[in-house]
Design goal:
The structure is a homodimer of 229-residue chains. Chain A contains eight helices and eight strands, in the order αααββααβββααβββα. The first copy, chain A, has 229 residues and is an alpha+beta fold. Chains A, B: Pfam families: HTH_IclR (PF09339), IclR_C (PF01614). Chains A, B: One of its GO terms (molecular function) is DNA binding.
Chain lengths: 229, 229
């Protein structure tokens, strides 16, 4: 493998500090959680600190994400044309359906992560934060994301056949979701487009209609991003 | 020094790809610009790609920032309480003065970088992007940012005495700026708060008044962030 261990450690530290629970952590907490040598961890942390990718509070002895990440994140959102394209569609979807629209991607082996979202201007809606992580199991997004994996199973073939997945209350009790994969150049599932709805606000047939709507939008995004250079 | 070279290389690559000119670069362009060994550069790039901090386009052979940075950037903006506090004040400043308010920090030896901004709801205003970099020389922000350096010079003492800096057309012809430092615990200049105005829309005395306003707001932010744990 052509990877650099120290860079992987740096990345794992940043991803850990991006989780609410670990947003402020001591050296020991970070090293323990990532199961890495404390002195290696310290060296990587100090380097990240010097680069302003991590901030250290001397009084509390806690590390947290650094302000330069705000710059990198904004630049990535501006420069990644496929995300920019998807965001336009998220906005349309949220406004037209009245449900929260999200763009998610796979994170690690068994989680998905929200990288863009649009909430509709209605009183009752599902709120989600960019960066929020969820387990893959039991949700419509999960069913789509499992397409990323090599193992073909029943659910995956269902998604492949219909082009979308529906999950009533699977996500969390009271929350239903519909999702469709955004596929780059007919082969790579790059993102999943999804709508999150309050279950009591939609019927089973209403969910099917939402799913068809999300599928159509995901197809349009897939075509548009596949045309990018 | 307790730094890790590979992590510095990774950070420098990300910062390079965050610049408009280098948003899509080949391995050779990156290695040449950063004056690093090509095979080291490739290993770091592949690691960053695996971690989704960098994306690689196989067809064009270009690297660009990766989508996971969007997640990290959003989390940093949410978790860094001082940035969150400053953003509230930016919004007030922009709406009350009708000028573009920005929060900047030092980047490298001689640049500053915009990490948050708020534009007023008026027809003519200066637009700036988060992540945009500017040279320190000749601007009011530069004068404040030079306080970060160890060398005391005339301009620095002026900023220290008055608590703000004013630059008419110094930024770029037609653009004037006023700026004041945001100081953490009475010692560390953490950010610079600034207003960017179209020069023709403000008189010299008007600029002075804006400077006093920015100074007052920067002081309030300084006090608030210094009280954070």
């Amino acid at each position: 493998m052509y990877t650099v261990p120290a860079v992987i450690t740096a990345s794992r530290i940043l991803k850990l500090l991006a989780r609410s629970k670990y947003r402020q952590s001591t050296l020991t907490e970070i090293a323990d959680h990532l199961a890495i040598n404390k002195s290696t961890c310290l060296r990587v942390l100090r380097t990240l600190q010097q680069e302003e990718l991590v901030r250290y509070n001397e009084r509390t002895r806690m590390y947290m994400l650094g302000s330069y990440l705000i710059v990198l994140g904004n630049r990535a959102a501006d420069f990644l044309d496929d995300v920019a394209i998807a965001r336009v569609h998220l906005s349309n979807l949220a406004h037209e359906t009245g449900h929260t629209a999200i763009l998610a991607q796979k994170s690690g082996a068994d989680k998905w992560i929200c990288i863009a979202k649009e909430e509709p201007p209605v009183d009752f809606r599902i709120t989600i934060t960019i960066g929020q992580q969820f387990p893959i199991d039991g949700t419509s997004l999960g069913a789509c994301l499992r397409m990323l994996d090599e193992t073909v199973n029943f659910e995956q073939s269902q998604v492949l056949e219909k082009g979308y997945a529906v999950s009533m209350d699977g996500f969390r009790k009271g929350i239903s979701s519909v999702a469709a994969p955004i596929i780059y150049k007919d082969q790579e599932v790059r993102y999943v487009l999804s709508l999150l709805a309050v279950t009591s606000s939609v019927s089973a047939s209403g969910l099917q209609k939402l799913a068809e709507r999300v599928k159509a939008e995901a197809l349009r995004i897939s075509e548009q991003i596949s045309r990018l250079v």
